[in-house]
Amino acid sequence: MGSLFLSGGGDRKNTEKFDEEFRRQIGQAKPLLYIPIAMDGEIPYADCLQWMRDVFHPLGIRDIVMWTDLHRKSAADLQQFPGVYIGGGNTFHLLNEMRNSGFDAVLEEYIKGGGVVYGGSAGAIILGSNIMTSAHLDDNRVGVHDFAGLDVLDGLAVWCHYEDENDEMIRRYIEDFDAPVIALPEESGAYFQDGHIKVTGTKSAYLFIGDDKVELQPGEAFNFSGDGDYDAQAIVGDKKPFNDAVGHMQSIEGYPAAGDYRNLETIPKALQVGGYLFVGLAVILFVSIVVAGWVLQ
Predict the structure, then answer these.
(1) Does residue 228 surpass a pLDDT of 70?
(2) Alpha-carbon span 126 to 147, nearest angstrom
């Protein structure tokens, strides 16, 4: 599986640290592919390309190729690029163009083959499980009826341009679509590979599962998919409660504390047995005292 950069959006100053991480990943020797399709009808493509040059030329990436037509493209065509940058704009239009051209399948093949993809705002949202996380910002002017994204993030949906006041909308989304959400402010981004997520930027990202909200601070990493019983489906489905998932996350890669959640399975077996014996002895002692008092009456 390839590497995925998910940006919360914003201007070049907001994404500066995240863009530097992307440049380090792909290098400077080969051209970067830029797909501005989400901006169709909003900003001229020439202006979009100039914006990309303003962002990446100072970082050493001077050769940028722009595709404005995704028809008749193949995974082989993508192999010439060390990275693909999918820009922001209207998420519904972007997904519609990718499906109609067949480029969604091409991009999935590129990612599965180890390709590097940067999604900015709408470009990040389409990589998730469902694009309705953009419904409060984008108009579905193209009449998309199937809101499933490419779903290459182990079941996560992506919420960009996140602000605290979005929490209620995110919880309603989770009720409607039964999927976890990673919420990214404009000053934040997340690097995703093989179930591992690392937050980059100057602001925290947030993971929403059910009614729970967990802060993910910049520089912190965790394994979303886990292993064994703690795979992605166990975390996002109904096989394990979220408290168990958080307990597991806390035991790996310095995952940040999330309240007083604890998972019994993370406690050493000896301590589990000792705890059971202590509780048992306490119950026996209590019963003995009660019986002795009754006999002495």
Answers:
(1) no
(2) 9
Provide the token pair at 83.
């990275």
Residue 290: predicted pLDDT: 64
> From the CB of residue 151, how many other CB atoms can be counted at a distance below 10 Å?
16
CA distance linking residue 294 with residue 214, whole number of Å: 51
Residue closest to 134 by CA, chosen among 173, 191, 85: 173
> pTM here?
0.76
What is the distance between the alpha carbons of residues 204 and 220, in angstroms, rounded to a whole number?
9
Beta strands at 188-193 and 3-7: parallel, antiparallel or unpaired: antiparallel
Read off the tokens for 46: 């020439």
Count Cα atoms within 13 angstroms, Cβ side, for 163.
5
Q: Each residue of 35-71: pLDDT tens digit?
A: 999 999 899 999 999 999 999 999 999 999 999 999 9
Q: What is the dihedral of CA 236, 241, 243, 247, to 10 degrees?
A: -70
pLDDT greater than 50 at residue 229: no
Check: CB of residue 189 under 8 Å from CB of residue 219. Answer: no
What's the pLDDT at 9? 85
The two beta strands, 221-223 and 64-66, are unpaired
As given in the structure block, the two tokens for residue 263 are 């998972």
Q: Rounded to an integer, what distance in angstroms lies between the CA atom of residue 128 and that of residue 149?
A: 5
Q: Provide the token pair at 173.
A: 């989304």
Rounded to 5 degrees, φ, ψ at 38 are -65, -20
Tell whether the model's pLDDT for residue 131 goes beyond 90: yes
Q: Which of 2, 93, 87, 94 is nearest to 53 (CA)?
A: 87
Element (H, E) at 176: helix 167-177
Of 21-30, 146-155, 176-185, 272-281, the range with the lowest mean pLDDT is 272-281
Instruction: Write the pLDDT tens digit of every residue in 166-187.
Output: 999 999 999 999 899 999 999 8
Residue 294: partners with Cβ closer than 8 Å, 6 or more residues away: none
